[in-house]
């Protein structure tokens, strides 16, 4: 991660602490993750600094178990995020002994959830981690076929539900579920906005210059396809480019600078996987792999016999 990533992660964690401390905690609402467990510890002891201390202790314990499963890089970035968020959760909550919006508990938890969701989305899009259920989900994703999002949902549901055993207040438990839903939605929105991809098709007589410029300046690959313009009955070259949505302006600028008359189409795509984009996160099917390996071996044998 770059210095910019670390700075944005710190900003996002401070924003998380503000959203939670100013809007959610004063309403005695327990949210998911280790923050929720820390809140339970605070309710049991009456000491607000227990939120941060509990978070840090649980994160270190989980990382000790996860070290060999999730890898060194994940552990290092999680230690950074867990340390910062624990410090924030020790310092910030005492600054807000009362809700910022008094007498409006539902509005407070909704506003807090929106801020928390935006903050977590920023952390995730900059390759950060705050620990807690992230660690549990990462371990589950390595060992099972259950998705990371589903694992986090199960864990958070259990933490929020357990708060009823302490507060005996069904309203605050329901508020906790509202926070969970809003946070999940906001995180997905921030992540998907950052990861949205588009596909360009470009037809131009200056296709070679455009392809080189996109390689060098946009740092994106270009596929050149042979085609024919049916109106002119002449062969043409069609450029195919996949890039992040936020990079599309760069592509347009490059094309306009080289050939303002180029024919361009842009389409949203649901997913782009491979080098420079997302990695496929589906678990291999052992039976399918066995069949494919057998077919590959049979093809190699047939090719050898054909050559001989």
Give the topology, please.
Layout: H1 3-24, H2 33-45, H3 50-70, H4 72-91, H5 105-125, H6 133-143, H7 148-162, H8 164-167, H9 170-195, E1 197-203, H10 207-218, E2 223-229, E3 234-244, H11 248-258, E4 263-269, H12 286-307
Antiparallel strand pairs: 1-3, 1-4, 2-3
Helix pairs in contact: 1-4, 1-5, 2-3, 3-4, 3-6, 5-9, 6-7, 7-9, 10-11
> In terms of structural class, how would the helical and strand content be classed?
alpha+beta
Q: What level of helicity do the residues show?
A: 55-70%
What's the rounded overall pLDDT mean?
Answer: 83
Tell me the total number of β-strands. 4
Low-confidence stretches: none
N to C succession of SSEs: HHHHHHHHHEHEEHEH
Strand content: 5-15%
Describe this structure in words.
It is a single chain. With 308 residues, this protein is of the alpha+beta class. It has 12 helices and 4 strands. Strands 2-3-1-4 form a 4-stranded antiparallel beta sheet, with no helix packed on it. The longest helix is centred in the middle third of the chain and has 26 residues, at 170-195. It is elongated.
Quick recap of the structure?
The protein has 308 residues and is α+β, with helices and mostly antiparallel strands. It is 64% helix and 10% strand. The chain is built from twelve helices and four strands; from the N terminus they run αααααααααβαββαβα.
Which tags fit this structure?
308 residues; alpha+beta; four-stranded antiparallel β-sheet
